[in-house]
Amino acid sequence: MATIEFITKEDLDKFKQELFSELRRPGQKLHKNSEQKEWLKSYEVRKLLSISPGTLQSLRDSGTLKFSKVGGLMFYKYDDVAALIDGKKNK
């Protein structure tokens, strides 16, 4: 008798992240934490930076934080957010 396994959206997202990690070109900078996602959603960035939606909008408008828009969602590179955090710590 065959075993039925269900795959959730979270399973697919994790697989996608692992696949992209494997396909990265040699020599490309890797994150300290291999489980860290390369792209973050707005709510994740707000949580990391402890800022409001309005402040995040201001960072986008001023060009301080780069973003990509896919459909109606904004995505931010983890490295860009980390650089912004490091810049704030150095000031």
TrEMBL record:
Residues 39-87 form the Helix-turn-helix domain. Keywords: DNA-binding. Pfam families: HTH_17. One of its GO terms (molecular function) is DNA binding. The keyword rRNA processing does not apply. SUPFAM superfamilies: Putative DNA-binding domain (SSF46955). This is DNA-binding protein.
